[in-house]
Amino acid sequence: xxxxxxxxxxxxxxxxxxxxxxxxxxxxxxxxxxxxxxxxxxxxxxxxxxxxxxxxxxxxxxxxxxxxxxxxxxxxxxxxxxxxxxxxxxxxxxxxxxxxxxxxxxxxxxxxxxxxxxxxxxxxxxxxxxxxxxxxxxxxxxxxxxxxxxxxxxxxxxxxxxxxxxxxxxxxxxxxxxxxxxxxxxxxxxxxxxxxxxxxxxxxxxxxxxxxxxxxxxxxxxxxxxxxxxxxxxxxxxxxxxxxxxxxxxxxxxxxxxxxxxxxxxxxxxxxxxxxxxxxxxxxxxxxxxxxxxxxxxxxxxxxxxxxxxxxxxxxxxx
Length: 319
Known about the structure:
Blueprint: H1 27-39, H2 44-51, H3 71-98, H4 106-131, H5 135-157, H6 159-166, H7 171-181, H8 186-197, H9 207-221, H10 225-236, H11 243-264, H12 268-280, H13 285-300, H14 311-318
Helix pairs in contact: 3-4, 3-11, 3-12, 3-13, 4-5, 4-6, 4-11, 5-6, 5-8, 5-9, 5-11, 12-13
């Protein structure tokens, strides 16, 4: 993604259509997305203003120079809907915990609310970094997004572990929990086992698992700048630190979080409907009510998500 305005430009007026914040967006993708929203009985423009405009640091996508196609803008557009869904999921989880919605334990609702609050901050920061041309810290955040997505799924799978997480009161306890149950692929292993039970094989020797390990290793290298400077250019060329890679991986993982949550907890959408209804009783159901119907929208957008081109292909397109 080559940006013409690192400052992000001027955000259109509140009443302006959302697409004005995505110059160069594919008309076909926009039409498809609006059709998905309409089919779910939702007003996309209203939801976008409610859930995305207030995000700290939100800015329009700068016009991209020398772009061969709309892929970069399309990616941000899909990423933003993931951010909107995570915000809606947080509101629903908060209501689910506060109103003791049956189907998930209080600890599961609490853990889901806490993780989606953190995911919201991470996604907002990742967006800002990507649009201002700061790919290295964006890579670090993308790795954290992936870990939190796995952890959210684990809390749905293991209620007792969710209670252990809720019982953490100190930094030391939280660090110990992370080391024992999440770090080193432990969370992903737990999720993979449950997915295998419903017919999806993501075991360690699959192509998907290998791709995941490779991406996470690349993102993890961003934490160690010396290693990144000496290793990544050799393996991927001088154009290796690209914003699109972090945005793509984070978007893909949120898509997976949405899809897998519905597979490992078949009542997930119904529970979110109840949580959204509970939130409406206290006048705070705007975002919470979006979580359940957005499940189908987010999963459907997996078909629209396209992996960024290899660095060599991008370099060729510029010349």
